[in-house]
Amino acid sequence: xxxxxxxxxxxxxxxxxxxxxxxxxxxxxxxxxxxxxxxxxxxxxxxxxxxxxxxxxxxxxxxxxxxxxxxxxxxxxxxxxxxxxxxxxxxxxxxxxxxxxxxxxxxxxxxxxxxxxxxxxxxxxxxxxxxxxxxxxxxxxxxxxxxxxxxxxxxxxxxxxxxxxxxxxxxxxxxxxxxxxxxxxxxxxxxxxxxxxxxxxxxxxxxxxxxxxxxxxxxxxxxxxxxxxxxxxxxxxxxxxxxxxxxxxxxxxxxxxxxxxxxxxxxxxxxxxxxxx
Length: 277
Fold this sequence. Notes:
The protein is mostly helical. It contains twelve helices and two strands, in the order βααβαααααααααα. The protein has a two-stranded parallel sheet. The longest helix is centred in the N-terminal third of the chain and has 23 residues, at about 20-45.
C-alpha cells in the first residue's frame, strides 16, 4: 500500500499564529477532523491512506511573522555531520539540517542557507536520495542568495522533492525519522529564540503546535504501530504529546502558562539533545 504524505497541519499552523481564542481553535479542529474523516472514508475504497504533517519552512515563516528572532547560536553545527553513521542517524541528521536550512532561508541568512544545503546534499547522497539535491539546484541557490522569495521557494522545493522520492520508494521509516527530527529541531529553535516567557504571539504559535504533534503522533502510530513503543525517536513524539496535553485543562483565555512553557521546552531540549551526536 502506498502512503501519500500531504500536509494537513499547515491549516493548523495558519490558526496557530493568528491569536484566535482556544475555543475557536478547538472548534476549527473538530470541523477539520470531521472533514478529514469524511475524505479518509472516501479514499478507503481505493486503499490509500492520507496523512499530513508540517514542513519546517512554513513553521518558520509563521514564527517570523509573529515576531520571532533568528538565533545563530543554536543551529546544529555542520561539522557534526560526520558523526552520523547509520541510515537512521543520517535520516535524523538530514531532518535537523533541513530544518536549519529552512530557518536560515526564512531569515535571509545566505551563507548558512548554502552551507546547510551542501550538508544536506551529502547526507542525501549517502541515503540514496538523489532527488532534490542536484548540482543544478545548488547553482540556483548560489545565484539567488539575495532573493528571499527565491531561497524560500528553492528550500521548499528541495524538501518536497526528497519527500516525494521517499514516498515513491515506500521508505516510510526514513521519512518518519526525517519528519520527527525536523519538527523537533524547529521547535527547539523556536523555544530558544524566546528569551523569556510572555503572553504574546510567539507563545501562541508554540502552544498551537499541540495540534501538529497530535497529528504527527497519529501518523506514526498508524504507519509504524509495531515500533511506536520501542523506537527512541518515536517515543519522543509520545513524550511531547503528553507534555502538550496539559494545555487542554487551561481556562479559555489561557493559551499556555509559564510553567507549561518551561515544561514543554524541557521535553523539546531533552529530545533534541538525544538526537544530536
